[in-house]
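Title: Prediction job returns without error message
Component: structure pipeline
Severity: low
Priority: P3
Assignee: unassigned

Description:
Job completed but the reporter wants confirmation the result is attached to the right record. Sequence as submitted:
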Amino acid sequence: QVQLVESGGGLAQSGGSLRLSCAASGFTFSAKAMGWARQAPGKGLEWVSGIHSDGSGTYYADSVGGRFTISRDNSKNVVYLQMDSLKPEDTALYFCTRAKGMRARPLPSEWDFMGQGTQVTVSS
C-alpha cells in the first residue's frame, strides 16, 4: 500500500533552518510528482511546494518562495524540503503529498495521497 513517512520536523528559532524528508513506498515513485503542504493551527491546508516526477520543474507558494527548496532522489524514493530563514508563521504540521500525475500543479484536485505529517515549530 502507499506510504509516505515524513521526518525532520522539530523546533527551530526564527531565521534558522530545518530539512524535512519524506520516504515513499508502495508505488512507482519516479512516475509521480511529489509535494509538501502545511496546516497551521486554526487554518486551512496550504500547498507549499511541488516537484515534477523527474525533478525538472518545481513550484513554491509565494509565502515560502526564496526560502524553501524542494528536491527529490528517485534512486532512494525520497523527497526533501529544505527550509531556511524560518519565520514564526511557518509553524505548522507539514505533510508530504503525492500527485495523480507526473507534473506538479498547485491545485488540490491534482493530489491524491498525503502522509501523517511532521510538526514544525518556529519560535521568535
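Comment from assignee: result matches the submitted record. The radius of gyration is 13 Å.
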